[in-house]
Amino acid sequence: MAKVLMKGNEAIGAAAIKAGCKYFFGYPITPQSELPEYMARELPKVGGVFLQAESEIAAINMVYGAAGAGVRVMTSSSSPGISLKQEGISYIAGAELPCVIVNIMRGGPGLGSIQPSQTDYFQATRGGGNGDYRLVVLAPANVQELVDLIIEGFDIADQYRNPVMILGDGMIGQMMEPVEFREPKRRDLPEKDWATTGTQGKRKPNIINSLYLQPEELEEHNKRLQAKYKAIMENEVKVESYNIEDADVVIAAYGTTSRIARTAISQLEEEGYKVGLIRPITLWPYPYDEFEKINPNCKGILTVEMNTGQMLDDVKIAVKGKHPVYFYGRTGGMVPTPNEIIEKVKEIYGGEK
Amino acid sequence: MAIVFKKTRGLTDVPTHYCPGCTHGIIHRLVGEALEELGVLDNAIGVAPVGCSVLAYKYFNCDMHEAAHGRAPAVATGIKRVRPDNFVFTYQGDGDLASIGTAEIVHAAHRGEKISTIFVNNAIYGMTGGQMAPTTLVGQKATTAPYGRDEAHCGKPIRMSELLATIDGAKFVERVTVTSPAHVRKAKKAIMECFKVQIEGKGFGIVEVLSTCPTNWGYTPEESLRWLEENMIPYYPLGNFKRPEEVE
């Protein structure tokens, strides 16, 4: 298929439809509104339903109902709206339903700003709602990867009966890049024989539920969830690395920030510096093992984020104290420049190449 | 011997957890009978609330979905929009529907969602131990209104049926009770008519059922029925507020 030029937010919608998602429930918020607008325009053409809910809370609960009824369904929002969805996300995770949730992050806390940021890393990877649950969190760095991850995200959600979050920022939602729509690798997806479809008098009622009043039962339920999360950790880690076995300094960055880091690394290489990159594509499960491959004599790991240091915690867990860990971040909608990253790398080098 | 009465197939064979004298059991039976008699039981998907009827998903003999507090109409919307040929209903209490879930019920009605809602109003939070509800009567005592509901402090109780009847998308709105056999028969008739509004694709329907809470009201079951009739019905008048106009 030929490449087409698409804006990130619209590409998400096109990819979802390509993946067989015909249902979308959402609520407007900048900087992701092009996505519900796209779905409002396109879903009726494929026999699907776009519905603008009265709130993000209602939207995620509509997703909860639709996912329970056994269809591929999506919602999207940006940071403050994703906060409102946390109740429903926790129920969806507890009831083990598949769906895809898109967060095009903006600056916070509170109403914050409408500029790009990465300040919801904690919320996405640690669970913003109540209870011991995990989302699969996918962090694309360009529009093509955004499309690929949306399509694969639906498969991951169905395979594990778990909500999947696409964590992008305002920049990736708003930028235009050429994309093509490719088939993901085929997965053996289970039948949705648990869905509410009406018994038709042929089976016992199906019940979608996250309530377990007996503590023994709830503990067993949590053990099942943890076993599932373990399988996801073993099978679904995605990471891209560059030159980490040989690097004197390794940068850890994801999404938009990783692209700026790449530019900085190219310029540093021209000056003779050896700098590597670890770019997690799955933020949960986190690619902790990748950090084991880093040059043992590396002078330090520099985490670069558009926040005040959130993925930094995972980098520290991954590094296990073997290397000094540094941080550079901009926040409030400010974006780090390649020169700022270059200066920070040179500081870690301490004047010696 | 001829069978003159048997339990509806609309309910499972599980004993309910409801307190003695609580009228949830009667209302469950009426809903189960209506589902069965209208031939939609095997095609039904119910949505249970949070509150006393949180375990309703165990009692209705059809596919069920347990919602978060107040969100049943949104969950039901999601189900109905992807499965328009299924019969979809919510079963909610007054804390769930008239307090934390007012946005969801008002907008489901406003959109004219083709779902049916059974709204059980007992003027109190039962499951959590008798706290004040938005439906608690002025002067009525509750654990969070130990001196009785004070209108100057927290307003008068909300009348949801009257409110919802003003919304175009709501096509059937009726308030009933189950304090006597005659009332039970009227309640059954209202539930049947409400469900038919969905089956015929006309829009949103709701039946509000005034219900008792002997445990938290602090009365015997019989006193509770009397208290409901003497105190709730004057403030929450019974009757139909809206039904689809007959089109010839």
Overview of this structure, please?
The complex is a heterodimer of chains A (353) and B (248). Chain A is an alpha/beta fold and 353 residues long. Chain A folds into two domains: 4-235, Rossmann fold (3-Layer(aba) Sandwich), CATH 3.40.50; 240-349, 3-Layer(aba) Sandwich (Rossmann fold). Chain A contains twelve helices and 15 strands. Chain A has helices at residues 8-18, 34-42, 56-68, 79-84, 86-94, 121-126, 143-160, 170-174, 215-235, 255-270, 311-319, 338-349, and strands at residues 4-7, 23-26, 49-52, 73-77, 99-105, 136-138, 163-169, 176-179, 207-208, 239-242, 249-252, 275-280, 282-284, 300-305, 325-329. Chain A has a seven-stranded mixed β-sheet, sandwiched between helices. In chain A, helix 1 packs parallel to helix 2 (34-42) and helix 1 (8-18) runs parallel beside helix 7 (143-160). The radius of gyration of chain A is 21 Å and the shape is globular. Chain B is α/β, with parallel strands linked by helices and 248 residues long. Chain B has one domain (24-242): 3-Layer(aba) Sandwich (Rossmann fold). In chain B, 38% of the residues lie in helices and 17% in strands. Chain B is built from ten helices and seven strands. A seven-stranded mixed β-sheet of chain B has the order 2-1-3-4-6-5-7, sandwiched between helices. In chain B, helix 2 (56-59) links the parallel strand 1 and strand 2 (63-66). In chain B, helix 4 (94-100) crosses helix 5. The longest helix of chain B has 19 residues, at 181-199. Chain B is globular, with a radius of gyration of 17 Å. The N and C termini of chain B lie far apart (45 Å). The model of chain B has no long low-confidence stretch (mean pLDDT 97). The chains are: A alpha/beta (353), B alpha/beta (248). Strand 9 of chain A pairs parallel with strand 2 of chain B.
